[in-house]
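Archive transcription. Copying these from loose printouts into the bound notebook so they stop getting lost. Printout 1 of 2:
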Amino acid sequence: MSDRLMYVKMIKSSRKTQLDLLKTIGEKYNLRPYFYKYGYCEKTEFKWFVPWIKDKPNDVRILDCCCGIGLLAACLDKHGYTEYYGSDINPEYVRVGTELFEELGLRGKITEGNVHELATHYNGLFDIVTMFDVSFFPGIDLIRVADQVLQALKPGGWFIFDFAEFKRIKSEINLYSRVEIRAILAEFSKLSFSRMKGNKTRWMVVAKK
């Protein structure tokens, strides 16, 4: 199976199948070059996020949901943000990410966890919760995630994520309109949208508790 077909199959599959494919991907690739290439703010989402966070204190506590191998941690560490906590359901990503943190001396940690159960472990602990590149996965229930994030955030905390918006497409992946996102995040006090540079269908969302 080609890399592209494997990815397409993954985002259109059930959560169990996603996990099996993620494990296969983790075993197939040496993820270190990917980390070095994208872990220092080269991903589009990070290029947007870093200017946004620069007016926040360096000791803000950040939870990165579905963090993979922790690419965002390397980017934040470069800018002096060290209170990074990553959470991912794939143990292979957590293992590789933890090894990379140790190799590079990054300040932060990654643990295995489910984005739908955040409040069980992180009730009211974080200033910022992020979730990049996964809202379109069929295994992600954004309504449940929003509820869990609200509980994980401190008062006045921020939830930042991206989503895909398509008006005319038949697909098994999760696609949302801005109206739907507003409804899902109705319990948040403030909400804004920014179109991702160079991508007409991807949006960044900033929601304040």
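Printout 2 of 2:
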Amino acid sequence: MEFIRSKSVSSWARTTLPASAVRTRTGLIFLVGISVLVLTTLGATYWINVLIKQDTQKIILLEHLQTQLLATPPQILPLEQGLHILLDGGELITDTGEKLELLPEGDPQLVETLQKGLSLLADARDPLPDHALELKTNLELTFDRLLQLFEIHRANNLGMARGMYAALFLSITTFLLIGLWFTEEFIAKPLEELVQITDRIAGGDLDTPIELRESDEFKELATGFEAMRLELRE
């Protein structure tokens, strides 16, 4: 009779052990964590890619303005309009016919250089004969400097995007490894111990105390098993 009761205890334990529930809950926690990490990184990289596209179009616009600057005589108004778009933002028609809304420039060094270019263009509207050549040289140097700064800015954003993808890969890998270790140490091992305990009780061993060594996650369940063992032994 006692053996039959032990068998029924073993069957009850196997059906009520919260293995699937705990694993599902833990899996959901890690899934949510990884999802938040992935979405955050993808959102950041998307914004960086937008900035890279903006920098590319600004470089194309600046190269076009440089060509106009080299014309004889240079057209001051289109140059001013172009620099104002680069500085304050505005709608730009790309070479492919796409409308692109350029964002206002936020880099302090670029803002300073753009303002310097606009100041030089204002002076170039009616230059003094003795300063015309010097003014055009300064404008060419300023435009060269702007082009260099925009290219550096784009390269930095490209490096940042690559770094974000690398950080995402490393973070997910680390997160998964920690999750696997946590699941093994605090869920899988205690569950295995509980299954061994039920097998032991089903085999008629009612004298060995029930204790979980690895984790307190299932302490309440182990306490219930211990109370049941004592009751069966009596």
